[in-house]
Write a structure and sequence with these properties.
The protein is built from nine helices and 15 strands. It is α+β, with helices and mostly antiparallel strands. The chain folds into three domains: 23-73, no CATH class; 81-95 and 253-336, Efflux pump adaptor protein, beta barrel domain (Elongation Factor Tu (Ef-tu), domain 3, Beta Barrel), CATH 2.40.30.170; 132-219. A hairpin with a 2-residue loop joins strand 1 and strand 2 (48-51). The protein is elongated and about 110 Å long.
């Protein structure tokens, strides 16, 4: 009897110490102990309390941490501008206009009128391909188109034929000339007028040919399409160039243009025509003023950015094209500081 009572006491004590922790059917199969509140579960191991968390509890903690991070930005209503500034790609300040002028005719490069670095006017002649044959064709066409003497002679014949016809008609009225003579005089006048008309038509054809030859002569000239600076000359004097081969490259660097992709939350307060501040990757010129000339009406769904185009004044030509620019913190807004 004493043995049975002792066994009962031991069993009761063991049950009391283990009752706070119960094994669930699902979790016990994986060897995980769970309480009603898994975040506060303790494992009794050699008298030392150690926290034990189930897989469900770990998931709860991760979700809570993630939600806390997201809610912090949602509650404040302010974008993470520091992250935006780090992620924003720089724009490149390009010349407003760049043109690589090609040859429109074949032949040797005969004359060069500019050097690299020269400023040229719009429609100014930069170089000349050998055009002596084309020039001779223009002179010949000019001579053919100049038919003043021939037209003057044709006009004189028409005038004489008109006078002769008038006299014959007067004589016929007085019965001093026959009808046949009147017909012959009238025929002579018609022939003179036809010759004059043919002379005018020939002159028009000759003038058209002259214009064609003059246009062909102009293809031997390399002209600037706009005012700019010569930045490269490809061939040397005397080298034979082919049609379409690049000859001179010019750029208008009086103004520079750059494209920026800016988070829409940072550019929403700005308008076209407004001056903003850019940070430039230039020694000694970290900040530059730029004018907004275009703001895209669409937001890029993937990046949540808006494309803007800005122009930088460079009439002094102190800024070299090709440097990187970014939106400065001042232009991005006070929350950038």
């Amino acid at each position: 009897m004493f043995s049975i009572a002792l066994i009962g006491v031991v069993f009761g004590l063991w049950t009391r110490t283990t009752s706070p922790i119960t094994n669930t059917k699902d979790e016990s199969s994986r060897g995980v102990f769970v309480t009603k509140d898994p975040l506060q579960a303790l494992d009794q191991y050699d008298g030392v309390a150690l926290p034990v968390m189930s897989n469900v509890s770990i998931a709860r903690c991760v979700a809570a941490t993630s939600n806390s991070s997201e809610n912090s930005s949602v509650e404040t209503g302010e974008p993470d501008t520091k992250l935006y500034m780090g992620e924003m790609l720089p724009g490149i300040a390009h010349p407003l206009q760049v043109a690589e002028i090609s040859a429109a005719a074949d032949g040797p490069l005969w004359k060069l009128f500019v050097a690299e670095g020269d400023t040229v006017a719009a429609d100014g002649v930069l170089a000349l391909i050998d055009n002596r044959v084309a020039l001779a064709s223009v002179v010949a066409a000019q001579s053919s188109a100049d038919r003043k003497a021939m037209l003057d002679a044709a006009n004189a014949k028409v005038s004489l034929a008109e006078q002769f016809l008038n006299r014959i008609q007067q004589a016929a009225n007085k019965k001093a000339a026959s009808g046949l003579e009147v017909d012959e005089a009238s025929s002579r006048l018609s022939e003179a007028k036809a010759a004059l008309q043919e002379g005018h038509e020939s002159q028009r054809d000759a003038i058209a040919r002259l214009k064609i030859e003059q246009a062909r002569l102009e293809t031997y000239e390399i002209r600037a399409p706009f005012q700019g600076t010569v930045i490269k000359i490809n061939p040397h004097l005397g080298e034979t160039v082919s049609r379409g081969a690049p000859i001179v490259k010019i750029a208008d660097i009086n103004r520079l243009r750059a494209e920026l992709f800016v988070p829409h939350s940072l550019i929403s307060a700005h308008r076209v025509g407004e001056t903003i501040e850019l940070r430039a990757d230039l020694p000694g010129r970290p900040l530059l003023d730029a004018k907004i000339v275009f703001i895209a009406p669409l937001i890029d769904a993937a990046t949540q950015t808006i494309r803007i185009v800005v122009e930088i004044e460079n009439s002094s030509k102190q800024l070299p094209a090709g440097f990187a620019v970014r939106l400065s913190q001042t232009s991005a807004g006070s929350d950038m500081h």
